[in-house]
Amino acid sequence: MDGIVTDVAVGVKRGSDELLSGSVLNSPNSNMSSMVVTANGNDTKKFKGEDKLDGAPSRVLHIRKLPGEVTETEVIALGLPFGKVTNILMLKGKNQAFLELATEEAAVTMVNYYSAVTPHLRNQLIYIQYSNHKELKTDNTLNQRAQAVLQAVTAVQATNAPISGTTVSESAVTPAQSPVLRIIIDNMYYPVTLDVLHQIFSKFGAVLKIITFTKNNQFQALLQYGDPVNAQQAKLALDGQNIYNACCTLRIDFSKLVNLNVKYNNDKSRDYTRPDLPSGDGQPALDPAIAAAFAKETSLLAVPGALSPLAIPNAAAAAAAAAAGRVGMPGVPAGGNTVLLVSNLNEEMVTPQSLFTLFGVYGDVQRVKILYNKKDSALIQMADGNQSQLAMSHLNGQKMYGKIIRVTLSKHQTVQLPREGLDDQGLTKDFGNSPLHRFKKPGSKNFQNIFPPSATLHLSNIPPSVAEEDLRALFANTGGTVKAFKFFQDHKMALLQMSTVEEAIQALIDLHNYNLGENHHLRVSFSKSTI
């Protein structure tokens, strides 16, 4: 997503490049007093840029080992999730910087967070510690570029503050009961992942933990801040907002819980203070470097609170396009992997075609491989990471052929086809060129009709000669009971309700693309409606 900070970097660059000549930012030789850092460009060499590692807390932080080409914006972005950044001094020749936050508390939170999640900038490890200096005094005439960036970021933050264009001050917020928020997402036409939530909610403070789950056919999450005040600010700003254009609406309440117990770091839950946790399912723990890289990416993205949708328009378009499988979403890992591992299948009944049809409701299935030595498991390759996330969140825990299936991300990057001439008993199938892909066309209306498995099915492409009785008989023949039926006005579409979700899943697998005659192939999908 094109986050605020990225936009600021672009916006400020033009107006400030000509201010750089002779600036203190290009000179490592700055004159510093013992308790107040000043930058006046004098060519004295008293400052060594070295602070004690275990210094007492200070709202001024000393950042070392910065990449040579790093910008002020990127350094400021490190501090933004934790509170207001009030000053910055870059020492480009020494690859160091000083960052001043509004409060000591914010600085302590930031140092604690980055001691758990190693900070990186541009894939380079950096070091953050308290400075010996208690405040940062810079000569603004010589430190113009840094001040310009800081002012621009502050202006953008103020513009996007949740209440009538002014920042919510801590004193103006009534104490919240809990630092934990319960989040429900309505109209989830595009995938919303744990990483997307982290990115959005980090604008209001450091997010410590997130747990996501599906309840009552709805994607929900519990999200914990370090401070109830942050939870209150996030709720004020985000409740009722759309993440993407006209969909994915946030419904936010305080949770009765005051602390979340996260056991695994994976796509469903994460404890950002403990990157060492295992991922579950026997997979290795989340690589701390990945955790740190993600912390870096999300800190670069501040999401406006007062706009609807939350993402600025081009970011919303990027998100929609990413869901449509046309582009990757910058800054948001699309679940990374396109391959799903599906286990606990009914090995007597399951076929590559049945998996293609069911998983094809949530994305364009490219390849399916039922494992030769473990026929209750299969690998399914989707067109992109967003589609695999969507299929996993909707189908994990559903019943298929009488068994509750488990869907997780596989460690494989692709599904291999069998070697030429090798008979694998039809267990592997390539669907790359299938005419039945629902999401091939960019902007297809199918993207707006993605719903969790439900007892009610939406039928379309019905020829004029087919009556209600024909369709009732056809669906009863799949082994379930048809509870209700209703034609749309034009008789080309209908809603049909089975008695259980499992029966509806079976009917969809059996009858999607069923030939009704007159060159009409029935299209079946899950509906959010009831009859």
Automatic annotation (TrEMBL):
Keywords: Acetylation, mRNA processing, mRNA splicing, Nucleus, Phosphoprotein, Repeat, RNA-binding. One of its GO terms (cellular component) is nucleus. One of its GO terms (biological process) is RNA splicing. It is found in: Nucleus. The keyword Phosphoprotein applies. It holds the Pfam family RRM_8. The keyword Phosphoprotein applies. SUPFAM superfamilies: RNA-binding domain, RBD. SMART domains: RRM. Its main location: nucleus. Residues 59-143, 181-257, 338-412, 455-529 form the RRM domain. It comes from the Eukaryota. GO terms for molecular function: RNA binding. This is Polypyrimidine tract-binding protein 2. It comes from Amazona collaria.
